[in-house]
Specification:
The chain is mostly helical. The relative contact order is 0.16.
Length: about 80
Amino acid sequence: MKYEGYIRRQLSQVEEFEKLEQHALPADLDYSGIQGLRLEAREKLAAVRPVNLGQASRISGVSPADMGALMIYLEKIK
């Protein structure tokens, strides 16, 4: 009972992370053309070339705001 709220929050984070892992990124994605990405994030994403959003979110230098901009861009190009 004491930790129930923490456990629920952690479980929802795990579910969100699994969704990100399933969302693949195009191999030829040009990160320099995505508005809203900071310069550091563009450079890191271009250097690492992550295969999915989960991997991109774990890159040092890629902030949650950068991830939001990336997800919005991916929705637009669908």
